[in-house]
Amino acid sequence: MSTVTRTRLTAEERQEQLIEAAVRAFGENGYAGTTTDQVARLAGVSQPYVIRLFRTKQELFLAAVQHAGDRIEAKWREAAGREATLESLGGAYKELLEQPGLMNTLLHGFAASADPAVGEPVRTCFGRLYDVVRELTGADDEEARDFFAFGMLLTCLGSMRVIGPGAVPPPAWAVGMLGTFKNL
């Protein structure tokens, strides 16, 4: 008879596990279509435990959106450590597009921003990312705007499964729109 030794997670590790599960759930089902019970099941904990840590679904959602923004910033800072250019940061963003839950969670955050409790933190997160790109690359306003516009296009195309994991054969309009970026 063998005994299995289970390692207890610290409170911080458990919270991180819940946020990762929330990113997956909100990324797949959106804010309105996700319950705290679904997140709890994905994380392997009870729903009351989720509420004990985050109090409300909205606070859990905001933690998931913040986590997505933090992951993007960390990836960009890592890329800038090798080469501080818009191209380098764009390559890092392309890698993040392989994690559709992450980007879809941000999209759901943008869509839910009419709610003042959601909108302000989401706008702050987006503004921070804009500032990070300018800080790391020295991009001017126009270059940063173009970088974010193309990134948003890629995020939307990834959400529609035109590029990235689970992509369907791209329609003609997408091929034309992406032009030389067909390798996405």
Report on this model:
- This is TetR/AcrR family transcriptional regulator.
- The chain has 184 residues and is mostly helical.
- Helices cover 72% and strands 0% of the residues.
- The chain is built from nine helices and no strands.
- The protein has helices at residues 11-29, 36-43, 47-54, 57-82, 86-96, 100-111, 116-137, 141-159, 172-178.
- Helix 4 (57-82) packs across helix 5 (86-96) and helix 4 (57-82) runs parallel beside helix 7 (116-137).
- The chain is globular and about 50 Å long.
Enumerate the spans where pLDDT stays under 50 for 5 or more consecutive residues: none
Order of helices and strands: HHHHHHHHH
CATH superfamily: Tetracycline Repressor, domain 2
- Termini distance? 51 Å
Helical fraction? over 70%
User: How big a fraction of the residues is strand?
Assistant: under 5%
Radius of gyration: 18 Å
* Average predicted local confidence, pLDDT: 90
CATH architecture: Orthogonal Bundle
Number of helices: 9
Produce the secondary structure layout.
Blueprint: H1 11-29, H2 36-43, H3 47-54, H4 57-82, H5 86-96, H6 100-111, H7 116-137, H8 141-159, H9 172-178
DNA-binding region: 35-54
Pfam family, one: TetR_N
Domain HTH tetR-type: 12-72
Describe the structure concisely for a colleague.
Keywords: DNA-binding. The chain has 184 residues and is an all-alpha fold.
